[in-house]
Specification:
The protein has 152 residues and is an alpha+beta fold. Helix content is 49%, strand content 20%. A hairpin with a 2-residue loop joins strand 1 and strand 2. The N and C termini lie far apart (44 Å).
Length: 152
């Protein structure tokens, strides 16, 4: 595994052997032992064992799954506060559309001097809510198709 650090991002190159090991772990976890909120990952550093907190366990399991599927994984941090341009990119929309959400108070924002800023947690929560709404609408559409026996 090679790691390249640049600013606040880490790009990790995974060897084929590591990818195969990740697939083995993913297969094990998706089989008889699917991960749950009580799944615990224990790190053995040689001087003792440390169980990871649930949030880090979920992150590790997600990374193992992605690596096992052959995905390129890039890890970075998000600042607490973002500009409207960055927030718009995070939401995959234009800046004017984002500003309309702010004006309509659908997305909280605050001023720093004359500049509008948003908290990353609010932008991510909005993105998650939007995704959940889209998923629910898709599930509803799928149910209607099944009810009416619509086929492609």
């Amino acid at each position: 595994m090679d790691t390249v650090l640049r600013d606040d991002r880490a790009n990790i190159s995974v060897t084929p052997r590591e990818a195969e090991q990740a697939r083995t772990v993913s297969t094990f976890l998706s089989g008889a032992n699917p991960p749950t909120s009580t799944t615990t990952v224990v790190v053995d550093s040689g001087s003792g064992q440390l169980p990871l907190p649930p949030e880090l366990t979920a992150l590790v399991l997600e990374l193992v799954d992605l690596v096992g599927r052959g995905c390129a994984v890039s890890v970075g941090s998000i600042p607490n506060e973002v500009t409207t341009t960055v927030a718009a990119r995070m939401l995959n929309m234009s800046r004017p559309s984002l500003m309309k959400l702010v004006r309509d108070q659908q997305l909280p924002a605050h001023k720093v001097g004359s500049h509008t800023r948003l908290f990353s947690r609010d932008v991510l929560a909005y993105r998650r809510a939007r995704f959940d709404e889209q998923s629910a609408a898709f599930d509803e559409l799928r149910a209607i198709e099944e009810e009416w026996d619509v086929r492609d």
